[in-house]
Amino acid sequence: MAIHSHLSFASSLHPKIDTRIELDGIHDNCFLDIVYELPASVFVDPYQLRDMESRIGKAEVFGEHDLELPLEKVKEPRGSIVLLRQTNLTSPIHIQLPIHTRYQKPASHQQYQAVTIKVPYAGWTCGASSWPPIDHELLIPYNRHHTNSRFIPISNTDSKEQLELLVPVGSTQDRQLVTLGTFCIVILCSAWIARSILVSVKRRKRTEAKGKRRKSD
């Protein structure tokens, strides 16, 4: 039994983790689960994974998965855990997990930020648990209810092996220009709205004045 992973589109905002699993056999009464430990710099879209269930398996996401926050605003610095429970055990199994990168904090002297991701690992979850009882901070509160389950990992995974992607970083100079430009646009729009209201009020007053003159005539 073997598992191999690599990154596709590693320099884009929407890379993918490609994983291939070769099975030697199947554990009876157990579920095959793939585990992804993602840093806070990247995230998955749970709704997208739900739509892809027929291709990647049933997904459970724990931890940070807010779709809008930049890296400096995330509430869970430990990132997230993604579990994919496989329903199709035909070997080899090929999974493409779409991930998304968060906007990094702007910098003055770099265009890209290197982000490392632990390679995913897989194994058999035996018991009544809906997810593997692995020892991870984000899963400890949930695993207390599944003490009778056990996880049999695929043995060839190197826990020190990592995947690396390059995330584009905005420039601090550009940030200042964007702030100034946004401020100017807000002022101009506010002035245009105020002018439109003033013109509308004047027209209404002229219309009312004409109406009064006609009545007096």
Please name the defining characteristics of this protein.
membrane, 217 residues, PIGX, 12 strands, five-stranded antiparallel β-sheet, Immunoglobulin-like, glycoprotein, alpha+beta
Please give the structural blueprint:
Blueprint: E1 2-8, E2 16-22, E3 30-38, E4 42-43, H1 46-51, H2 53-56, E5 58-63, E6 80-85, E7 93-98, E8 100-101, E9 112-118, E10 121-126, H3 140-143, E11 150-153, E12 162-168, H4 172-216
Antiparallel strand pairs: 1-2, 2-7, 3-6, 3-10, 4-8, 5-6, 9-12, 10-11
Describe this structure in words.
The chain is of the alpha+beta class and 217 residues long. The protein folds into 2 domains: 2-170, Sandwich (Immunoglobulin-like), CATH 2.60.40; 172-217. 27% of the residues lie in helices and 32% in strands. The chain has 4 helices and 12 strands, in the order E-E-E-E-H-H-E-E-E-E-E-E-H-E-E-H. The strands form 4 sheets. It has a 5-stranded antiparallel β-sheet with strand order 5-6-3-10-11. It has a 3-stranded antiparallel β-sheet with strand order 1-2-7, with no helix packed on it. A two-stranded antiparallel ribbon has the order 4-8. The longest helix is centred in the last third of the chain and has 45 residues, at 172-216. The chain is elongated, with a radius of gyration of 27 Å. The N and C termini lie far apart (99 Å). The model has no long low-confidence stretch (mean pLDDT 82). This is Protein PBN1. One of its GO terms (biological process) is GPI anchor biosynthetic process. Keywords: Endoplasmic reticulum, Glycoprotein, GPI-anchor biosynthesis, Membrane, Transmembrane, Transmembrane helix. The chain crosses the membrane at residues 177-198. Its main location: endoplasmic reticulum.
